[in-house]
Every structure is written in C-alpha cells, then in structure tokens.
Amino acid sequence: xxxxxxxxxxxxxxxxxxxxxxxxxxxxxxxxxxxxxxxxxxxxxxxxxxxxxxxxxxxxxxxxxxxxxxxxxxxxxxxxxxxxxxxxxxxxxxxxxxxxxxxxxxxxxxxxxxxxxxxxxxxxxxxxxxxxxxxxxxxxxxxxxxxxxxxxxxxxxxxxxxxxx
Length: 165
Ligand SMILES: CC(C)(COP(=O)(O)OP(=O)(O)OC[C@H]1O[C@@H](n2cnc3c(N)ncnc32)[C@H](O)[C@@H]1OP(=O)(O)O)[C@@H](O)C(=O)NCCC(=O)NCCS
Prior knowledge:
Layout: E1 2-5, H1 10-17, H2 26-35, E2 39-46, E3 49-57, H3 64-69, E4 75-81, H4 91-105, E5 110-116, H5 120-128, E6 132-144, E7 150-163
Parallel strand pairs: 4-5
Antiparallel strand pairs: 1-2, 2-3, 3-4, 5-7, 6-7
Coenzyme A is lined by residues 79-81, 87-93, 115, 119, 121-122, 124-125.
C-alpha cells in the first residue's frame, strides 16, 4: 500500500473505484479545493487501485466556534476506505498518520478531526491514535444524491485534536 498526494489524473480513477452518488464528482470538487490551496488530498493505493482517501484542510474546520477554540488547527476530513473488506487493515491509520506528516512539514504542532456522534467505531480509532475531545459542534454540509437532489445535512459531531510530538 502506498499513499500519494492526489493528482488531476487520479480523479477519474477515484470516481471509478470510490465513486460518489451525485452527478458532480466529489473527487473533482475536492481536487479543485486542493488547486485553490485550501487542502491537500491524499490517496491510498493497493495494486494500482485507489482504496482510501482523506484531505488535510489547511483552512481548518468550517465551524467558526471550533476554529476559535483552537486557532490555526488544520482538519483531517473526508476519511474513507473502500471497499469495506479492506477496512481494519491499517489503511485508515496510515492515511491519518500521512496527513499528520504533512502538518509537521508545515511546522504545525496540532491536527484536528471531526467525528459524528453516531460513529463510535471511528471515534475509537481516533482515540487509539491519540486524539482527544476539544468541543462539540454541528457539522453542516450538503451532498448530491443519485437523483441530482442536493441534500442539506446537520450532524452533531465532536472535534478532536492531537498535539503532534
Ligand atoms: C473509519 C475508516 C476510515 C477506518 O479505516 P480502516 O482502514 O478500517 O482503519 P484501520 O484499519 O486503521 O483501523 C481499524 C479501526 O477503525 C475503526 N473503524 C471505524 N469504522 C469502521 C468500519 N466501518 N469498519 C472497520 N473498522 C472501522 C475500528 O475501530 C477499527 O478497529 P478494529 O478493526 O479493531 O475494529 C473506515 O472504517 C471507513 O471508511 N469507514 C466508513 C467511513 C467513515 O466512517 N469515515 C470516518 C469519518 S469521521
């Protein structure tokens, strides 16, 4: 398994193997954010296929109260491993550690990650990786479903932080 920064050529492969339901490519929108300097997208590869991804959002959490609670903290977001049978083999951990490495390269000493209240397995993973609760917040986001309808979501979440050694 290797982890690389996402390139323009990777977007089509991500759509093919880790596609999103809507007509607008989730990966293309994320890559556009990388091109704008807002984030760095990471892709995990196994046998030439993308099997995981995350993004390091240099601009931090979208919630202003979270940003105020820990100014300058970047956010690891959109972490996923697919297909499901490849989970619990360390790919998610490797993506988180790679994102932390990017933060270190920028001279940052803290990294954050938001986790939904109804995702205790992910919360358990982040606790094992050294993340501790900073504050609760409401994660507001939208996505396009298979019919092309934009769905607005509000998820109760906890923002976790890890001080980098
Ligand atoms: C969370 C996720 C990225 C972890 O990736 P991973 O490659 O399975 O992670 P690792 O192998 O490094 O660690 C496995 C641990 O992740 C946690 N985990 C969380 N959700 C999981 C899931 N759906 N399946 C398997 N493990 C999961 C468990 O604590 C697991 O430990 P265990 O194997 O002892 O049960 C992956 O499970 C996933 O894509 N889940 C669905 C999307 C998601 O919930 N993303 C997180 C948003 S905050």
